[in-house]
C-alpha cells in the first residue's frame, strides 16, 4: 500500500455508493482487506503507509486501533446495505501492513469476529495475516487459528544476514524455521515472502535464500524484485553512493533462478511473482484483486473497490480515527472507472496470471499482436492457438512490454 494517495473526486461523507457499484454484485466475490499501519522499525526500502510508535503523534495508538478498525467494519456493513448491495459472505480476508502481528492476536481476532458477524464466511474461506518472524509466538499463532485465520504469510525476505541488514529487517535467519513450525502446529498454511535484487546481494546469496526457504517446504512463495521508491532511506543511500544501485539484468538472472529452483521444488507459478504448491494454495485474496472482484479496505490509507467504484481512506491514523468517531466516512477520495479504464486494468492484471488472457476479449489491435508475441517467444504457442495468452518465462520477465503491445496506443 504505497503511502502517496491518488488524486480523485471528493468522497461523500456518508460513504454511499452509486448504482454502478450495485449492478451485477451478486455475481462477484466479496473480500475484506484490513490494514494494520504499525511497524517496530521502518525498513529502508519501504514506501507503505506505516508508522512506528514514535511517528504516531497524539490522537492515535496501537492500543485503540482494533476498536477503531471495528468501527469501520460496522460502517462498511451499513454503507453496503444502505447502498443496495446484496448480502454476500466473505470469500477472503487479508490482514496486511505494516506488521499486523504487532497488535495482540486477540485484537486481530476481534476485528475478524466483527467482520464475520456482519457478513459471515464462505465455506473454506481464506483468512490470511502477514507477519514478521519476530512478531509471533506459538501462543499468538494458536489464538489466530482458533479465531478463524487459515494462513500466515511471513516476511522472510532473505536468509543472508548482510542482505537483511541492508533491508533493515530485524529478525535473524534462524527464527524463520521456528515460526514456520509454530504456524504448522497451529494448523495454519504458510507462505514465505522473499525479495531479490537488494544492493550487495550476489546471485549465490539469492540462491542460498531460495534454497533455505524451500527447505522449510512452504505452501506458497512470493518473490518480488526490490523497487527503490523515491523518498525512502534506501533511495537516499543509493543516491549518496553508500550502496550500489539496482541492475535490471541482475533482477532478470535472479528471477530465472527463482523460477527454476521453486519449480524444481514442486511449486508452480500462478502469477508472475507468486508460486504455490497446489492451485488451491494460491493466495485467493490476491487473485480477487487481479480478477477485479469486490473488496472493502479497512484502515488508514486502505483502498477499496466495489463494481468499478474505487476509493481510498485518509492516510494518518489520527485523521482516520477522527473521521470514524464523528460517524463520517474515512475516505479521502474516490473514482468511478469507465468501461475503457476497467478493460485496460483487466488486461494488465489477467495477463500476469497463469490462467491467461482470453484473446476473444481483446480489441483488433490486441488480436493482431498475438502472432508477434508468439514469434518473439513471449507467450505459449499452444495456449495462444486455443485462444488464451499465457506468458512464457521470457514473457514474465517482460510482462509490462507484453501488455503495452496488446493495448492500443
Briefly note the structural class of the backbone: alpha/beta
Radius of gyration: 21 Å
Please state the overall shape, judged from the principal axes of the Cα atoms.
Answer: globular
Please write the string of helix (H) and strand (E) elements. HEHEHEHEHHEHEHHEEHEEEHEHEHHEHH
Would you state the CATH class of the largest domain? Alpha Beta
- How far apart the termini lie comes to 29 Å
The total domain count is 2
Unreliable parts:
none
Q: Specify the number of helices.
A: 16
CATH H-tier superfamily of the largest domain: Aldolase class I
Helix content: 25-40%
The major sheet is characterized as: 9 strands, mixed
Task: Give the CATH architecture of the largest domain.
Answer: Alpha-Beta Barrel
Beta-strand percentage range: 15-25%
Mean pLDDT: 93
- By CATH, the topology of the largest domain is TIM Barrel
What is the strand arrangement across the widest sheet?
7-8-6-5-4-3-2-1-9
Number of distinct beta strands: 14
Family: Belongs to the anaerobic coproporphyrinogen-III oxidase family. HemW subfamily.
Pfam families: Radical_SAM
InterPro entries: Aldolase_TIM (IPR013785), Coproporphyrinogen-III_oxidase (IPR034505), Elp3/MiaA/NifB-like_rSAM (IPR006638), HemW-like (IPR004559), rSAM (IPR007197), rSAM_sf (IPR058240)
Keywords: 4Fe-4S, Chaperone, Cytoplasm, Heme, Iron, Iron-sulfur, Metal-binding, S-adenosyl-L-methionine
Amino acid at each position: 500500500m504505497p503511502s502517496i494517495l491518488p488524486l480523485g473526486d471528493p468522497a461523500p461523507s456518508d460513504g454511499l455508493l452509486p448504482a454502478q457499484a450495485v449492478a451485477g454484485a451478486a455475481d462477484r466475490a466479496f473480500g475484506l482487506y484490513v490494514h494494520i499501519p504499525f511497524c517496530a522499525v521502518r525498513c529502508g526500502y519501504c514506501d507503505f503507509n506505516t508508522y512506528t510508535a514514535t511517528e504516531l503523534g497524539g490522537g492515535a495508538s496501537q492500543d485503540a486501533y482494533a476498536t477503531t478498525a471495528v468501527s469501520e467494519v460496522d460502517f462498511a456493513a451499513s454503507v453496503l446495505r444502505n447502498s443496495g448491495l446484496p448480502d454476500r459472505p466473505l470469500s477472503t480476508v487479508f490482514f496486511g501492513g505494516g506488521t499486523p502481528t504487532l497488535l495482540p492476536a486477540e485484537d486481530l481476532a476481534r476485528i475478524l469476529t466483527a467482520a464475520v458477524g456482519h457478513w459471515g464466511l464462505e465455506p473454506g474461506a481464506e483468512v490470511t495475516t502477514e507477519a514478521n518472524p519476530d512478531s509471533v509466538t506459538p501462543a499468538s499463532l494458536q489464538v489466530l487459528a482458533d479465531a478463524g485465520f487459515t494462513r500466515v504469510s511471513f516476511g522472510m525476505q532473505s536468509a543472508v544476514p548482510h542482505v537483511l541488514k541492508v533491508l533493515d529487517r530485524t529478525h535473524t535467519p534462524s527464527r524463520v524455521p521456528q515460526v514456520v513450525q509454530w504456524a504448522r502446529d497451529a494448523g495454519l498454511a504458510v507462505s514465505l515472502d522473499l525479495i531479490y535484487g537488494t544492493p550487495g546481494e550476489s546471485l549465490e546469496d539469492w540462491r542460498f535464500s531460495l534454497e533455505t526457504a524451500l527447505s522449510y517446504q512452504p505452501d506458497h512463495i512470493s518473490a518480488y524484485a526490490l523497487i527503490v521508491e523515491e523518498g525512502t532511506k534506501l533511495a537516499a543511500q543509493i543516491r549518496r553512493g553508500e550502496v550500489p544501485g539496482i541492475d535490471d539484468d541482475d533482477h532478470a538472472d535472479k528471477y530465472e533462478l527463482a523460477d527454476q529452483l521453486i519449480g524444481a521444488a514442486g511449486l508452480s507459478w500462478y502469477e508472475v511473482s507468486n508460486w504455490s504448491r497446489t492451485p488451491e494454495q494460491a493466495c485467493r485474496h490476491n487473485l480477487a484483486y487481479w480478477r477485479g472482484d469486490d473488496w472493502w479496505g479497512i484502515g488508514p490509507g486502505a483502498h477499496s473497490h466495489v463494481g468499478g467504484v474505487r476509493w481510498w481512506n485518509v492516510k494518518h491514523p489520527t485523521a482516520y480515527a477522527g473521521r470514524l468517531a464523528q460517524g463520517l466516512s474515512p475516505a479521502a477520495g474516490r473514482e468511478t472507472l469507465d468501461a475503457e479504464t476497467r478493460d485496460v486494468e483487466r488486461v494488465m492484471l489477467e495477463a500476469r496470471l497463469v490462467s491467461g488472457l482470453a484473446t476473444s476479449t481483446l480489441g483488433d489491435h490486441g488480436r493482431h499482436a498475438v502472432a508477434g508475441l508468439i514469434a518473439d517467444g513471449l507467450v505459449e504457442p499452444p495456449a495462444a492457438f486455443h485462444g488464451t495468452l499465457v506468458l512464457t518465462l521470457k514473457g514474465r520477465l517482460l510482462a509490462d512490454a507484453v501488455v503495452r503491445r496488446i493495448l492500443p496506443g
